[in-house]
Amino acid sequence: MKIYTKTGDKGQTSLIGGRVDKDDLRVEAYGTLDELNSFVGKAMTELDTTLFADMLVDLEAIQNELFDAGTDLANVMKDRHYKLSDEPVEVLEQRIDALMEEAPPLEKFILPGGSPAAATLHIARTVTRRVERQTVTLMKASEDVSPIVARYLNRLSDYFFVAARIVNARLNIADNEYVRSAKVFRTEKSEKKSES
């Protein structure tokens, strides 16, 4: 089997149910999902398998869900069935809530960084925001887009933010606060800390 097909040499590519130019909004969106998936894979290589076993389970599920989301964005068939369901959105919400219980108090904006894995998760967060914007643009241009993809991406960026903080916390690396940030976050933990 040859990896190259030559069918894209004139600037077009195949969707599920059609062909479009390679700079089509759909291709841009699912191509960015592929980029995001690569950063998730990189983060996984930077996590200790014992200390971060729970996150590695999360991230492997996320990699598969990103493929599902990409398939849904690439599908333009009239009788299409979407792969991504609401269940992964709900699971992300549960994981975010669980990790937030572990997270140190947060009052100010933080700078991306800390450990290599946390920095990679912050990159994943920002790429997620980009593909979310691209998906919204695609939704405005076409009715043939699953609304679940946008919801999933919105939760996913939140997950990456919290996960990056937990990675640093478990490694005893403090968040690096943005020096000119006002106090923008109010959490029960930060309020309890200020009261004591």
Automatic annotation (TrEMBL):
Coiled coil: none annotated. Keywords: ATP-binding, Cobalamin biosynthesis, Nucleotide-binding, Transferase. It comes from the Bacteria. Residues 3-166 form the Cobalamin adenosyltransferase-like domain. SUPFAM superfamilies: Cobalamin adenosyltransferase-like. Its EC number is 2.5.1.17. One of its GO terms (molecular function) is corrinoid adenosyltransferase activity. Pathway: Cofactor biosynthesis; adenosylcobalamin biosynthesis; adenosylcobalamin from cob(II)yrinate a,c-diamide: step 2/7. It catalyses: 2 cob(II)yrinate a,c diamide + reduced [electron-transfer flavoprotein] + 2 ATP = 2 adenosylcob(III)yrinate a,c-diamide + 2 triphosphate + oxidized [electron-transfer flavoprotein] + 3 H(+); 2 cob(II)alamin + reduced [electron-transfer flavoprotein] + 2 ATP = 2 adenosylcob(III)alamin + 2 triphosphate + oxidized [electron-transfer flavoprotein] + 3 H(+). Belongs to the Cob(I)alamin adenosyltransferase family. This is Corrinoid adenosyltransferase. It comes from Sporosarcina siberiensis.
